[in-house]
Amino acid sequence: MPTYTVEMTRAAHRVYKKLDPPVQKRVKTEMAKVAENPSAAPQLRGLPLPVRSHHFSHQGVQWRIAYTVDDAVNKVVVVLLGVRENFYDRLKRLL
Fold this sequence. Notes:
It is a single chain. The protein is of the alpha+beta class. It has a single domain (5-94), classed as YaeB-like fold (2-Layer Sandwich), CATH 3.30.2310.20. 35% of the residues lie in helices and 32% in strands. The protein has 3 helices and 4 strands. Strands 1-4-3-2 form a 4-stranded mixed beta sheet. A hairpin with a 2-residue loop joins β2 and β3 (61-70). The longest helix is centred in the N-terminal third of the chain and has 16 residues, at 21-36.
């Protein structure tokens, strides 16, 4: 299975820039895991696009990375990232 390239939307990058450096490092690590196997995360229902949600915990806080997969060009596009609280509401407004 080929490794996928990872890109971020403007909304995801805006959130990423505001994170503390240790959290940014952890998010990069988790994005690398997503690039290795993008189909491992569950696909979300009730959204206009086929979005998957990768879950991880950092210092007791639940984080989410929502992304779409383009198998034709081996690319993962991170739509949004953030803490679990109100994450899915923000994702629905964004899409």
